[in-house]
Amino acid sequence: MSHNTSYAAAPTLTLTAGGTTYAYRELGPKGGVPVVFFVHLAATLDNWDPRIVDPIAAGRHAIAFDNKGVGASTGKVPGTIEEAADDAYTFIRALGFDTIDIFSFSLGGMIAQDLVIKHPELVRKLVLTGTGPRGGKDIDKVAKTTYYDILRATLTRSDPKEFLFFDRDSVGKKAGKAFVDRLKERTADRDKDISVPAFRTQLSAIKKYGRSRPSDLSTITQPTLIANGDNDRMVPSVLSDDLHSRIAGSELVIYPDSGHGGIFQYHEQFTPVAVRFLAP
């Protein structure tokens, strides 16, 4: 049986659960444990790099979704990361799954940590990229960095992600433009951008998370892959080391000369690592 393995061509579907209609896309072969993708700050369904999703979907059922109140999902953006994790749990269980793998990036990794701590039985394997732990050093400064880089991008008529995710040297600039171009490969049925109030609510939730008491990450016993660039200005790279030291048996991959979007800059090297790690 043939199945779609192109994220750019995956249809947008909806599911209503707990009073919220969630927008999502799925691709890859059905059956087995699905890989659910937890997206970053301000992101919609259109923000996943197809060079990451497509190779994983070549052999796995892959599902990406809009967080509550973002993109085509209805409702109000939750004010805390814990609430966002509860929403993700509601969505996943409504799809009928009792076991999943998680691939997360940035804010998505924060939500994923809260989810796996509260519902350890749900998660088989965990991928945490460009993220950090609750109470992690300088996570509460994400908003300041974000607004600064949005201003810099506006002045140069660039996409803010080129500043937020990539170094501003020649290699980083090239990688940033290539990444933004890949996000435009989907031309039909594109998602709605996040609203400004929703974006601010997410930033506020991240600040609260950064100023909260640390979680006990020793309770995470699932196989965990942690990855980042070595110069992450949004969620400091040292926090990936912190996660690695606190999650027993976790694997850590740090890419040189790259920032928050290190996995996108090094997608050719990273994707085989992720595919191998997520193998059934």
TrEMBL record:
<dbReference type="Pfam" id="PF00561">
    <property type="entry name" value="Abhydrolase_1"/>
</dbReference>
<dbReference type="InterPro" id="IPR000073">
    <property type="entry name" value="AB_hydrolase_1"/>
</dbReference>
<dbReference type="InterPro" id="IPR029058">
    <property type="entry name" value="AB_hydrolase_fold"/>
</dbReference>
<keyword id="KW-0378">Hydrolase</keyword>
<feature type="domain" description="AB hydrolase-1">
    <location>
        <begin position="35"/>
        <end position="264"/>
    </location>
</feature>
<dbReference type="GO" id="GO:0016787">
    <property type="term" value="F:hydrolase activity"/>
</dbReference>
<protein>
    <submittedName>
        <fullName>Alpha/beta hydrolase</fullName>
    </submittedName>
</protein>
<dbReference type="InterPro" id="IPR050471">
    <property type="entry name" value="AB_hydrolase"/>
</dbReference>
